[in-house]
């Protein structure tokens, strides 16, 4: 919000405008959610007739500033949404598509040699059994993942373009219910004395 060096004078109006703007998360204004009624703002003073007592210039100036603040807040929201939308991509999954499931190594586990870099980031492929809402899918996963719930957010899935023989096996992985796995050394290849 650009008020030059006099922004401190308008801080109370900014706060007033923010508290009386519609919030999509609570589906009301903050004032309305707190007190259960709409706030009587300077914008509605003309309807009541109070501007005769206060002065039409002050009411007009306050109304213009509130409208200007609301427009600038909306512009800031739109700008932030455009930044967020650049990183967002909509993923449409169909039933019977094949997907890889993201797994994570446990934090704090000692890594051995280069094995840490070669850990599988995704396991699978798995078939999608059904869509649960817009952003969740139910997968057909094997017995090794029986402790894991079979519904996953789309951010944990990656479309599988490879054939079945190129799949990452679950044989050597011990995955817990939070999709974390423990890295274990396989063998000691060489040692120095």
UniProtKB/TrEMBL annotation:
Report the Pfam families cross-referenced here. Answer: SH3_Tf2-1
* UniProt keyword Nucleotidyltransferase, yes or no: yes
Query: What does the record give under GO molecular function?
Result: nucleic acid binding; RNA-directed DNA polymerase activity
Which PANTHER family does the annotation name? CHROMO DOMAIN-CONTAINING PROTEIN, NUCLEOTIDYLTRANSFERASE, RIBONUCLEASE H
Query: Which residues does the UniProt record annotate as the domain Tf2-1-like SH3-like?
Result: 97-161
Looking at the UniProt entry, the stretches that span the membrane are none
Q: What is this protein called?
A: Putative reverse transcriptase domain-containing protein
* Alphabetic keyword roster: Nucleotidyltransferase, RNA-directed DNA polymerase, Transferase
- The organism's taxonomic lineage, starting at the top: Eukaryota, Viridiplantae, Streptophyta, Embryophyta, Tracheophyta
Q: Which InterPro entries match?
A: RNaseH_sf, SH3_Tf2-1
